[in-house]
Amino acid sequence: QVRLVESGGGLVQPGGSLRLSCAASGMIFSRNAMGWYRQGPGKEREFVARISSGGEFTNYADSVKGRFTISRDNAKNTVYLQMNSLKPEDTAVYYCETSYGDYWGKGTLVTVSS
């Protein structure tokens, strides 16, 4: 059974930073690309970032490029999202996803507000 557990969300002021984590189990983590999506209040879920199985390749939504960094530790079956220079429009529930299949965690809430 595939399980994705996101953590690290919270309340942060504009310009601040957070690091999200997603621990995966029930699949061969190192063989699958991983990604992050988010869903803001009243919005559709949208793509944020993705990283290849070995970590060599990454891509980002234009809205986060230069501010967010996705990384992974295959020894820990964990993918990360380092978020810097946060803006109020980054407020959302953040979810990780896997290329292994249509599996989603419960998400972690990020609120950017002064």
Task: Write out key terms for the chains shown.
single chain, 114 residues, mainly beta, 7-stranded mixed sheet, 4-stranded antiparallel sheet, 11 strands, globular
Q: Quote the beta fraction.
A: over 45%
Could you tell me the mean pLDDT?
Answer: 96
Structural class: mainly beta
Report the major sheet: 7 strands, mixed
Number of helices: 0
What distance lies between the first and last C-alpha atoms, to the nearest angstrom? 40 Å
Shape: globular
Number of strands: 11
Q: List low-pLDDT spans.
A: none
Q: How are helices and strands ordered from N to C?
A: EEEEEEEEEEE
User: Helix content range of the residues, please?
Assistant: under 10%
Gyration radius, to the nearest Å?
13 Å
Structure description:
By secondary structure, this protein is an all-beta fold. It is built from no helices and 11 strands. The chain has strands at 3-7, 10-12, 18-25, 34-39, 46-51, 58-60, 68-73, 78-83, 92-98, 101-104, 108-112. The strands form 2 sheets. Strands 2, 4, 5, 6, 9, 10 and 11 form a 7-stranded mixed β-sheet that branches. Strands 1-3-8-7 form a 4-stranded antiparallel β-sheet, with no helix packed on it. The protein starts with a strand and ends with a strand. The model has no long low-confidence stretch (mean pLDDT 96).
